[in-house]
TrEMBL record:
Annotated protein name in UniProt: Glucose-6-phosphate 1-dehydrogenase
Domain Glucose-6-phosphate dehydrogenase C-terminal: 190-488
Encoding gene per record: zwf
PROSITE patterns assigned to the protein according to its UniProt record, in alphabetical order: G6P_DEHYDROGENASE (PS00069)
GO annotation, biological process: glucose metabolic process; pentose-phosphate shunt, oxidative branch
Amino acid sequence: MEITEQVKTIVVIFGATGDLAKRKLFPSIYNLYSKGQLSEKFAVVGIGRRELSQEEFQTNVVKSVGTDNAYTREFSQHFYYHPFDVTNRNSYVDLKGQLVQLDEEYQVEGNRIFYLAMAPEFFGEIAQHLKREGLTNTSGYSRLIIEKPFGHNLPSAQLLNEQISQAFTEDQIYRIDHYLGKEMVQNIEVIRFANAIFEPLWNNRYIANIQITSSEVLGVEDRGGYYEKSGALRDMVQNHMLQMVSLLAMEPPIKLTTDEIRSEKIKVLRAMRPVKETEVHEYFVRGQYSSGEINGERVIGYREENNVSEKSTTETYVAGKILIDNFRWANVPFYIRTGKRMKEKSTKIVVQFKDIPMNLYYNNSEQHLNPNLLVIHIQPMEGITLSLNAKRQGKKIGIAPVKLDYCNNCEDVLNTPEAYEKLLYDCVRGDATNFTHWNEVALSWQFVDPISRIWENDEVTSISTYPAGTMGPDEANVLLAKDDFHWWSLSDSM
Ligand SMILES: NC(=O)C1=CN([C@@H]2O[C@H](COP(=O)(O)OP(=O)(O)OC[C@H]3O[C@@H](n4cnc5c(N)ncnc54)[C@H](OP(=O)(O)O)[C@@H]3O)[C@@H](O)[C@H]2O)C=CC1
Ligand SMILES: O=C1O[C@H](COP(=O)(O)O)[C@@H](O)[C@H](O)[C@H]1O
């Protein structure tokens, strides 16, 4: 039986009237509470500027949880609203008084988590006010959860890191990458290191290439302003995609501790071959969605979205080839692609094994055996598929592809905890393994910065478009074709 560790803490959410709090944070805290992972000894203080009464704030919490009954109302009684402008230093004194009072009332033993669910320009200032006004000085723990984006490029990330490091030490800082909270992303490590059949093959002798796709059907929605400055490279590649690459490529850690795992991931990021500015076009492809059709409905192009320039060259799609210059991965391409308004919502990893040395079954050169594929289905379906070749029934030597499937969430789709729920629980327990260390953030920016520099200086006309509802621009297919590979279809059923 799994032993549930009950935790006591106060969580201060900066940005508690925002979208992230409503859609992800309140429901996640509720799930922890209803599963008994949060004890009765917890309180949440929400910060925002708008005027809301205590009752209105608690009603918003109940609404975001989705069920209004005695239990959820009782849950919402743990929530307190404290409106102020985070740039106003004096307000932190009042907040401190409130935390001292709640600490006593809920007996949380001085444990405090400060969750920055706000625009990044406030991160440094909030951290510094928390320190100067003594809110981080407590008898329990004091931790900072920080949302993405962590900077815009390496220099801005360094500046931000310096600011928050004046108030919090590295082991108090929890930088969220919500992909690291996904069940099947966490499973990568287990699939690799708990199975005798994979690890011996997990290298350049047996693997031909690895493909990671994270495609979305949604467009930029109401985030045009943010996305114009970010684009898919900063929004998805710098963080989620490179994190998946590092989990797939890292060496087995000597122990499953936070430091050991992070240290192995950092080595991968260090070994990634830098893309020279002159080679960006050879290794990376970008695209922008034009109008198209998704699920039978017309959708507008990126340049017609709200808060997007009609001449925008911001990429909504990126495909790239990454090489890792170490003994294990020399010459094995890791292909990544991610984009908005694509054909389907899906995150998948396909490990393509090398062909067998000699094909005994077909002596005509037109017929090939399918390579073995290990597919890790991250979302929406969660599971693993292994594609093999087997004898076609009845025929003398006919070969048919067969699949061994494991579906993680087929029985109960609702049972998989949300990434935010898992990450919050990790933070209250002090487990930073699934958060990104500063060195990971810095190395990731170092890798993507030359690419964005080139793209930002490119001619306006140089961005390819792809119709919404497709799998991206054709150049992404050419990228693999140059190496005699192709993208494996996402619609491969489980
Ligand atoms: N939404 C999402 O799905 C995701 C969001 N993120 C990140 O999370 C963070 C928050 O995003 P999101 O919730 O969407 O943003 P929203 O714009 O929806 O919310 C912003 C919040 O900040 C508060 N706020 C803004 N300025 C001030 C101020 N000067 N003083 C006090 N409060 C202020 C707002 O409160 P009020 O309006 O009451 O002043 C509101 O609660 C961002 O860093 C974003 O990049 C990351 C991944 C996904
Ligand atoms: O961080 C982000 O991730 C989402 C995609 O997350 P997923 O869990 O739905 O795959 C993306 O839509 C967003 O632009 C980006 O900021």
